[in-house]
């Protein structure tokens, strides 16, 4: 019988080469041993959630990767976890499939981390910067703070950044470029989500504003696909964005956090609480009560069953042998 290696370990990042070969032979993984999704109740859900978020880290055949994930989800009875815009063959059925069902949120980078700047490219003037930075705590968003996990944009990247646009101040009348036309380029590194856009001549005034330093900040708009709620070391509610659908990026005048209603709705869903109650508690800065035991002051973070948490996500990024590439 084939050597199973450490196939019983709970984290797919810990699978050694022998375990990955065994997973491929059993049909649990891609032929090269990547994207292992084991059949056991103990590991299958975690493997599946990890694989869905890691599609963007694989090779060029993202449709084949998604088709494999769909097949494994069906085999272990967890098809409900597959994103709604994935077709049966692994293709994407449309970036707009979430419109009207998932609220758009906007976030702005702080300090110099998201500084919009002018970049020269063969004589052309491009605008670029970091629209989002990873593992950096936001300011108070109205009762909670937020961080962007390094895996948050993996699905959008894996899909080829479909229909992502750049707009000055997120204004429809101030279009700067699009990924579809190739005038907007997106990237991810260890620091965050970067963008680089070539504005049309009709928007040269935006280029001038950035060049003069009048416009210094960057922002991104998104729909949340997956998040998790915990607490900071100081005992404050913390929302971690684990999966988002990127909508647009933008150089902006005045950064201001808004659109937090979707975050509060997520918290209400997590704790099966009344949304109006959550909003009222947020206004009173009392959301931390959701995370504190009623019989004492010790924080007791309630985790969603099967949630692939920040610690596991960090392990995926730090692993020596990547099962998703």
Please provide a written account of the structure.
With 325 residues, the protein is α+β, with helices and mostly antiparallel strands. The chain has 2 domains: 12-93, no CATH class; 104-260, no CATH class. The protein is 23% helix and 22% strand. It is built from 8 helices and 10 strands. The protein has helices at 17-25, 44-53, 62-75, 154-158, 204-212, 261-270, 275-283, 310-318, and strands spanning 104-108, 117-121, 124-133, 145-148, 165-167, 175-178, 184-188, 192-197, 217-231, 237-252. Strands 1, 4, 5, 6, 9 and 10 form a 6-stranded mixed sheet that branches. Strands 2-3-8-7 form a 4-stranded antiparallel sheet. Helix 6 (261-270) crosses helix 7. The protein is globular and about 60 Å long. The protein starts with 16 loop residues before the first helix and ends in a 7-residue tail after the last helix. Residues 1-10, 95-101 and 297-321 have low confidence and may be disordered. One of its GO terms (biological process) is proteolysis. Keywords: Hydrolase, Protease, Viral release from host cell.
